[in-house]
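Intended use. Records like the one below are meant for learning the mapping from a protein sequence to its folded structure. Do not use them to infer anything beyond what is encoded.
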Amino acid sequence: MRRAVVSLLLILAAVGGCGDGGARDEANQLYSEGGAAASSGDHQKAVERFSQALEKFPAGFIHFERAKSYAALGKDDEARKDIEAARADGVAESECSLLLTEMQKPLARRFKLPRAPRPR
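Structure written out for the chain above:
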């Protein structure tokens, strides 16, 4: 009897874990939409999508991407909170440090790559 109860509990735990797949899929879709918005320069929309993704599936990499968009909008306090959440969830310290360094620049100079010299 005890064996049957343990087996039933294991089966229920496995099936119950499948419920996260829908939330994870939704979060992935929202994360992709946020990334596309950020790439096109619409950081406000990116923040909204990343926030929605975090509601579905909290993950450090989503916090990190939202932090980049917050930093691009000049919302440094919010960016720092997300950087800390990303760190706590295992995002590489080097990535977090690079973003914090970028945030020390004036807003107009953030995320600007130097232009390569023209070939002669």
